[in-house]
Amino acid sequence: MIPVTLKDTEARTAIRRTWGQDGLIPRVTVLHLFVIGQPAQRDPVLQEHLERESKEYGDIIQMDFVDSYHNLTIKTMMIMNWIATYCRGAWYAMKIDADIFLNVRYLVDYLHDQGESSRKDYISGSVISDAVPHRDSFNKWYISEDLYPDTWYPPYVSGAAYVFSTDLARKISWASRFVQPIPLEDVYVGLCLHVLGVKPIYATTFLGLSNLFEVRRLKYERCTFAKRIIVNGFNPQNLLRICTCSISS
Ligand SMILES: *[C@@H]1O[C@H](CO)[C@@H](O)[C@H](O)[C@H]1NC(C)=O
């Protein structure tokens, strides 16, 4: 599930041509879906383009809420509901931003190695532990004490990308009834996991030497990228450039 906005046409194209393409992994079905809300200002021309694009590719879900940075938590919860309703046959779901390189093969192998225990109450990514709320109102991640009085956040997975067993979508959605919304979607998912008593799993290589969900930007280097599930920070052109060499092999 890839949250995007109406105008991210280039990013959608790049993903369809790279890690989103069908049949990348033999005997494993991977489906990519773009999730879009409504723009704050109606734009009939862009909307018409989107509907045409949707007819052509069948990979766009448009939901009824105003798409804004502040509403990302709503968006994530709508994604959870959608997965709970329509993806019952799938073992895993992933939420991933559009500006990310995804190594689908490595992801599939990683999940395979996790075994049976990862089919239920499982969520993995780049886990952030010991984070505390930012109380400085100029901070991008500012949270007022009214909204969140506690002095710490429970462990959560970075919102850039995380993967989970599909049963968790329904459970997170249920837990959200008891958690006051805050505009930080990844922390919010962490708060729901805390209600459920589910601990997110830090995805690392054997011995924990490197973070498989690389949230930093790395300079492209074939061997490094072959050993990561995600690498952050790709505009559509860069994604196309590195993937033409790494995916085809
Ligand atoms: C969030 O979405 C709701 C429902 O569409 C909308 O009423 C509200 O204005 C949105 N908030 C922001 C900050 O965009």
Automatic annotation (TrEMBL):
Entry EC no(s): 2.4.1.-
Transmembrane regions listed in the UniProt entry: none
Keywords, in A-Z order: Glycoprotein, Glycosyltransferase, Golgi apparatus, Lipid metabolism, Membrane, Signal-anchor, Transferase, Transmembrane, Transmembrane helix
Molecular function GO labels: N-acetyl-beta-D-glucosaminide beta-(1,3)-galactosyltransferase activity
Classification via InterPro entries: Glyco_trans_31, Nucleotide-diphossugar_trans
GO cellular component: Golgi membrane
Membrane topology: Single-pass type II membrane protein
Pathway linked to the protein: Protein modification; protein glycosylation
Chief subcellular location: Golgi
Domain of life of the organism encoding this protein: Eukaryota
One Pfam short name: Galactosyl_T
Biological processes per GO annotation: lipid metabolic process; protein O-linked glycosylation
Cellular compartment(s): Golgi apparatus membrane
Entries under Gene3D superfamilies matching the protein: 3.90.550.50
Family affiliation: Belongs to the glycosyltransferase 31 family.
Protein known as: Hexosyltransferase
